[in-house]
Structure to design on (209 residues):
């Protein structure tokens, strides 16, 4: 009788160990799946934030450039956009910190505001690799006719190189060096640009007359 009881106890212990083993394996598998999904969500959210911030920058610049009352100028590596007689919007891109700043001053000839007085765009860890504005005199046939005013030959191209991926500080040192030295060779770096023709009531009309 005792032998039968001992056998039943032994079987029960084996079943318990087996059950615990399966539970541990299932828990580990579920954790790995959850971790993978969570990382994928964070990655997608980060890319969405990057895209949204890029759109905000581009939309603001487009409106300011199109409504400028005089031709914008690049002075001391800063983009100056006169939007009123006593208001100039200024953009400054810090290449070392890879951060874009926006400030305001009274006129183009006025002293530039200190970087500490300018508002930085909230990009994570230097995701902006490059920012540039090209003011050129180009053939109007390069653009859609309906977007041009008075067959103008003045246009502005705003370009940004964005690390459209994980945060910069999460990259390996090797990746950081490679991206900074050859950004166009990395698929995680995306180029955003827009071509702007100013409104006919401002400096575009003044120059074409």
């Amino acid at each position: 009788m005792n032998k039968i009881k001992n056998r039943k106890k032994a079987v029960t212990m084996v079943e318990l160990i087996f059950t615990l083993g399966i539970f541990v394996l299932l828990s580990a598998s579920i954790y790995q799946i959850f971790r993978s999904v969570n990382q994928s969500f964070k990655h997608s959210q980060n890319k969405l934030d990057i895209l949204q911030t890029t759109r905000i920058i581009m939309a603001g610049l487009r409106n300011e450039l199109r409504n400028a009352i005089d031709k914008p100028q690049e002075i001391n590596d800063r983009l100056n956009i006169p939007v009123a007689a006593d208001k100039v919007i200024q953009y400054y891109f810090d290449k070392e910190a890879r951060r874009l700043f926006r400030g305001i001053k009274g006129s183009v000839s006025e002293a530039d505001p200190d970087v500490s007085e300018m508002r930085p765009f909230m990009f994570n860890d230097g995701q902006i690799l490059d920012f540039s504005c090209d003011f050129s005199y180009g053939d109007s046939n390069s653009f859609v006719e309906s977007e041009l005013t008075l067959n103008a030959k003045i246009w502005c191209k705003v370009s940004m190189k964005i690390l459209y991926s994980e945060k910069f500080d999460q990259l390996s040192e090797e990746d950081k060096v490679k991206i900074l030295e050859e950004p166009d060779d990395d698929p995680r770096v995306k180029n955003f640009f827009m071509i702007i023709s100013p409104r006919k009531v401002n400096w575009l009309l003044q120059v074409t007359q």
In short: Residues 43-208 form one domain. Helices lie at 2-66, 173-181, 203-208. The chain has one domain: 43-208. The radius of gyration is 29 Å.
